[in-house]
Specification:
- Belongs to the FPP/GGPP synthase family.
- This protein is an all-alpha fold.
- It has two domains: 140 residues, Farnesyl Diphosphate Synthase (Orthogonal Bundle), CATH 1.10.600.10; 190 residues, Farnesyl Diphosphate Synthase (Orthogonal Bundle), CATH 1.10.600.
- It is 69% helix and 2% strand.
- It has a two-stranded antiparallel ribbon. The protein has a two-stranded antiparallel ribbon with strand order 3-4.
- Strand 3 and strand 4 form a beta hairpin.
- The protein is globular.
- The relative contact order is 0.10.
């Protein structure tokens, strides 16, 4: 799943510091939630799972225990969460928030990070993945297994508890609940489309096209990665989201562009620079590159794709990449990138609110022509 972006520099650094401080408080509140009578064992499961020595060696974890919350909520860049703070600052036209504003913005940011953790725990199970953020997927941890399904559900329910505890008296509380529910539904529906399109054992490239790719990306990634942080900041600012449909459309389009970049970098990015080796071809992903290839290929070229796409054999992967080169997909991408940027800038500058323009441009300028 794609990541959102945040502002750099002093403002970004201060946002990160403030954001990190709030996590411990929210975690403690979860562990003391009066709605459930925690036993010692259930508290330990959420905050401290003992590991025997051989498990530590297998997991390469240099500690005597792991924590379900820390393991899954922490470990990422927290870009989505911190984007709430930075977007809120820009909407208010200030570099400094008061104590309450900082806490509320950080708390909503952490709700997005909790949502991300919930998605990833279940996504890894569905994809039968091995690692996440440089460590074993949660369900791969000995003693966890499919208990991870319930852990994902617990993580999702933590969001509702956090929102209730800190926002119930706010005039926008119902809007926040509706927002998180809607974004979760859109994301889960996008995941469904992705799963049934690329279902293992039923590989069929004829299902892949630009419309399907766009719909998967928009619903699975763009709403929760790009729209949700800004929508939270707008609600904090006292705005009615019904008045910002154009902002939603721009952010969803930006999220789509971001995922196309990801698909491109998976094939053409420098593994040492982007931090991973691309596997979209081997994994039979409905990538922007393969749907572009299918649109442009003649019958012989399509035959090469059908015979080689989705196979782990390096020779098969090489044949697909050679075909991409033959079809000049690098140039196709760069043209798409240029057109996308120009359209997004035009749409952003058409918005009457300069503060909103600043928020949208800050997102766009961090991702335009990114290399990782």
């Amino acid at each position: 799943m794609a990541a959102a972006v945040v502002a750099n520099g002093a403002s970004g650094d201060s946002s990160k510091a403030a954001f990190a401080e709030i996590y411990s408080r929210l975690k403690e509140e979860m562990l003391e939630d009066p709605a459930f009578e925690f036993t010692d064992e259930s508290l330990q499961w959420i905050d401290r799972i003992p590991l025997v020595r051989q498990w530590i060696k297998e997991l390469r974890v240099a500690q005597s225990a792991i924590k379900m919350l820390d393991y899954n909520v922490l470990g990422g860049k927290c870009n989505r969460g911190i984007s709430v703070i930075d977007s809120f600052k820009m909407l208010k036209g200030t570099d400094v928030l008061n104590k309450e504003e900082t806490f509320l913005a950080c708390t909503l940011g952490w709700c997005i990070e909790w949502l991300q953790a919930y998605f990833l725990v279940l996504d890894d199970i569905m994809d039968n993945s091995q690692t996440r953020r440089g460590q074993p997927c949660w369900f791969r941890v000995p003693q966890v297994g499919l208990i991870a399904v319930n852990d994902g559900i617990i993580l999702r329910n933590h969001i509702s508890r956090i929102l209730q505890r800190h926002f119930k008296g706010k005039p926008y509380y119902v809007d926040l609940i509706d927002l998180f529910n809607e974004v979760e539904f859109k994301t889960a529906s996008g995941q469904l489309l992705d799963l049934i399109t690329t279902h293992e054992g039923e590989k069929d490239l004829t299902k892949y096209n630009l419309t399907v790719h766009r719909r998967i990306v928009q619903y699975k990634t763009a709403y929760y990665s790009f729209y949700l942080p800004v929508a939270c900041a707008l609600l904090l600012s006292g705005e009615n989201l019904d008045n910002f449909g154009d902002v939603k459309n721009i952010l969803v389009e930006m999220g789509t562009y971001f995922q196309v970049q990801d698909d491109y970098l998976d094939c053409y990015g420098d593994p040492e620079f982007i931090g991973k080796i691309g596997t979209d071809i081997e994994d039979y992903k409905c990538s922007w590159l393969v749907v572009q290839a299918l649109e442009r290929a003649d019958e012989n070229q399509k035959h090469i794709l059908f015979e080689n796409y989705g196979k782990p054999d390096p020779e098969c992967v090489a044949k697909v990449k050679d075909l991409y080169k033959e079809l000049n997909l690098e140039a196709v991408f760069h043209e798409y990138e240029r057109e996308s940027y120009n359209k997004l800038i035009a749409d952003i500058e058409a918005h009457p609110n300069k503060a909103v323009q600043n928020v949208l441009k800050s997102f766009l300028h961090k991702i335009y022509k990114r290399q990782k």
